[in-house]
Amino acid sequence: TLAAIRSASSGPGRLADGHAVPLLANVGSVDSAREAAARGAEGVGLFRTEVLFLGAEKAPSVDEQADTYRAVFAEFPGQKVVVRVLDAGADKPLAFLTDQGEENPALGRRGLRALQAHEQVLRDQLTALATAAAASDAEVQVMAPMVSTAEEAAYFRAIAHESSISTAGVMVEVPSAAILADHVVPEADFVSIGTNDLTQYVFAADRLLGTVAHLQDPWHPAVLRLIESVGRAGAANGVPVGICGEAAADPLLAVVLVGLGATTLSMSSTSIADVRAELAQHTLDDAQRLAAIAVAAPSAEAARRAVTDARPLNP
Ligand code: PEP
Ligand code: MG
Fold this sequence. Notes:
By secondary structure, the protein is an alpha/beta fold. Helix content is 44%, strand content 12%. It contains 14 helices and eight strands. Strands 1-2-3-4-5-6-7-8 form an eight-stranded parallel barrel, surrounded by six helices. Helix 2 packs parallel to helix 3 (62-73), helix 11 (251-259) packs across helix 12 and helix 13 (284-296) runs antiparallel to helix 14 (300-310). The chain is globular and about 55 Å long. The structure holds phosphoenolpyruvate and magnesium ion. Magnesium ion (MG) binds next to helix 9. One of its GO terms (cellular component) is cytoplasm. It catalyses: L-histidyl-[protein] + phosphoenolpyruvate = N(pros)-phospho-L-histidyl-[protein] + pyruvate.
């Protein structure tokens, strides 16, 4: 019907049976937040704060940070904004956080590991976020990158709560965190699966290296099975499970991810309209059926083909 077409081209993300799947944006600047709001994002699922400080020699002050955070939050009154604390290291070194001379920076002291080693930087960022959140109408949540153990998740939630931020989650993008989802998930208020790094680490294939790019495919059942077990742990513990890697921007894969238990999807805002339209074609039962087909496939290519073939035709 016309109403169905209209609701699929704007408004909140939902499946054909009405099941809500909030469509959030990945942003890295005030400008990209403004663009995301204009494109109908229902909030922000990943604010990559390290992008703001890539050239900085020293840690930005609390006031300087709070000003920028306030400007981003102002774009999403009444909506959720998930802020990732600094994810420094590997492809995004920050002079004040990243160790020099690591031989394998993707396996080095990066993400939350670097913040634990420089805890005042983390405390200052959380203070700036709490200050900006208190002065805004957005529903601000914080999230830690590169969490690999349940202890790290517990550490992050405790330090966020100490800084008066009540909702603290963790990214699941290191295989150990996904394998131990039943222990990691209960230590977080929400989790968000970073399919870019999860795929890189599952295949031991640098996500930026062209010669191994064929392995960077989140359709691979090796990745999907881990996502499935995180989805199960989320459902068992009543903990929301978001997806914030590039996988969420692939419309048909987005349906599979919902079938695997994703409760929200976050992506580059340019992809939201296409994902919204595809979700509107499927019920939750249908998404779960497609997900089962994908996880049973022997390869990424086979999963993509089998799901494409099983996709119900447009009404
Ligand atoms: C990811 O790893 O999937 C992710 C969303 O974070 P980033 O791409 O910034 O590492
Ligand atoms: Mg990542």
